[in-house]
Specification:
Layout lengths: L1 H7 L2 H4 L2 H38 L15 H11 L10 H17 L18 H22 L3 H32 L4 H6 L4 H4 L11 H14 L11 H4 L9 H26 L17 H22 L5 H30 L7
Helix pairs in contact: 3-12, 3-13, 4-12, 5-6, 5-12, 6-7, 7-10, 7-14, 10-12, 12-13
């Protein structure tokens, strides 16, 4: 993507190459960050519409045509509000926490491929970068809970730490199964390795009997990783008021809000990339490749987001002991078993790194 943007600009002919590449990288970052912010606004609107439809309500329908401007009205409201910082807080950390959450939610998109070559940084360890960056996001919740100097945010921070450890472990083993099949940590390579599975007809790892259970585990773990219902124990309003967000207002609250939904879109994208073909069409059929890969990728993100909203609208919140039991007593042993099954199958079949 960087080389494409560089070749399309006049920078290469009229500026030193270092400055040209710097401006090109900035352009590539803005090309992802700005549409992502617009997507977050629209995805919040879609989320509320889906919940409303499942509860037989109308949802946003007043601000703009069909209520499309409701998210922008909410954003303007929080922007114009006064930022209130409680006297007992650690002010520096209190303000830093939402910045961490929002920033981490953006930097992971640097390695997400939207299509062939459409990626800011196509690094060989892209999957490790995603794991490292996403694991930092929980620090925003922990710091906000501790710096608020309030009991409910502090309880929320402790829950977030335990929840992150519980599900990061199983996610790591699930991703190891994917890496074994694909033979690479590069996200573009993982997508390409999914071409022609299921008798050469389907572009997905998820149709593989050995990886479909791991696709289901990864999807459920994605809900827990983003603290979406039924795993929203960090902001359970019936127990913790609003959890780590209790003392926040105005734009500091909005940054948490934006970061949360950016992470949701990211996990939807990772579900599509790791198990369901990424930018590849669902079927390995020549006419379907005429549709740009980015369109297929966005359609898959939307499908997974619908599932996220469906779960939120219909599944009651887990108790905390149920959350821990699911992570440690079910997902962790299951993922370890499937690592043994996948590696054993690849060794017996002699297809290590080549898929099945």
């Amino acid at each position: 993507m960087i080389s494409i943007l560089y070749s399309l600009t006049f920078f290469g002919h009229h500026m030193p190459w270092k400055a040209a590449y710097l401006l090109t990288y900035v352009g590539a970052i803005l090309l992802i960050a700005l549409p992502l912010m617009l997507a977050v606004a629209m995805i919040i609107y879609a989320d509320r519409k889906i919940w409303a439809a499942m509860a037989l309500r109308r949802g946003p329908n007043v601000v703009g045509p069909f209520g499309l401007l409701q998210s922008f009205a909410d954003g303007l409201k929080v922007f114009l509000q006064e930022t209130i910082i409680p006297a007992a807080t650690n002010k520096g950390l209190f303000l830093l926490a939402p910045i961490i959450t929002f920033t981490v939610a953006l930097i992971v998109w640097a390695v997400v491929p939207f299509g062939p070559g459409l990626v800011v940084a196509d690094i060989n360890v892209g999957l490790l970068y995603v794991l490292a960056a996403s694991s930092i996001g929980v620090y925003g919740v922990i710091i906000s809970g501790w710096s608020s100097n309030s009991k409910y945010p502090f309880y929320s921070a402790m829950r977030a730490a335990a929840q992150m450890v519980s599900y990061e472990v199983s996610i790591g083993f699930v991703l190891l199964c994917v890496v074994l099949f694909a033979g690479t940590f590069n996200l573009s390579g993982i997508v390409l390795a999914q071409k022609g599975h299921g008798l050469g007809l389907i572009n997905a790892f998820g149709v593989n009997p050995l990886l479909f259970p791991m696709a289901a585990v990864f999807f459920i773990s994605s809900l827990a990783e983003t603290a979406r219902p039924p795993f929203d124990l960090t902001e359970a309003e019936s127990e913790l008021v609003a959890g780590y967000q209790t003392e926040y207002s105005s734009m500091s609250f909005a940054l948490f809000w934006l970061g949360e939904y950016a992470n949701v879109i990211l996990m939807c994208g990772l579900n599509a990339i790791l198990f369901w073909g990424g930018w590849l069409p669902p079927l390995n059929w020549a006419p379907l490749y005429l549709v740009p890969g980015i369109i297929w990728f966005l359609i898959k993100i939307w499908c997974f987001f619908f599932l996220f909203s469906w779960v939120k609208a219909t599944v009651p919140r887990y108790r905390y002991d149920q959350l821990m039991r699911l992570g440690w007593k079910i997902f962790l042993p299951l993922s370890l078993i499937f690592i043994a099954l996948v590696s054993g199958w690849l060794m017996v079949s002699g297809r290590i790194g080549g898929g099945v």
